[in-house]
Design a protein that fits this description.
Blueprint: E1 3-4, E2 18-26, H1 30-38, H2 43-46, E3 52-55, E4 66-70, E5 74-83, E6 87-95, E7 100-113, E8 116-127, H3 129-133, H4 135-158
Antiparallel strand pairs: 1-6, 2-8, 3-4, 4-5, 5-6, 6-7, 7-8
Length: about 160
Amino acid sequence: MKFQCQPVDVSFLDDPPVLIVNEIELEASAAAVFDVFADADSWPKWFPSIDSAEYTSEPPYGIGTTRTIRSALTAHETFMVWEPGKAFGFYFNALSGPWFRSFAEIYQLEDIGENRCRFTWRTGYKTSFLGWLFRSIVFRKINGALAAARDGLAQYLRK
């Protein structure tokens, strides 16, 4: 069953009801990290809670591209930001669970030296009523998954 989510634009991440920010310095250029993000097959290799990722629209990929992520939940996404070497962002169109009214992420990259970049990851969401009832569990699950993915990405890039 699909639960529809409200489409948002990047401004949603300026002041969402819940915001989680992760930041890490990575041993790779911003362009190389963006290439990892753009490669759907790489996601299960560095994001521990993701089982698969696949684009559901044809290349070339960019703003408006759609993708499906399978994990404990299945998320159907639309990209609202696609700036090679700089930023990568999407929102959920639908989810296989009734937890969110809206959900969006933006991955921002900034070169900070030779083969080094700063990765800032902003995740914002607005829960559904059910998500609000279980808000502390929802937050812990999301925050834990994002932290594991951040660390997984750093390890993946070192290999």
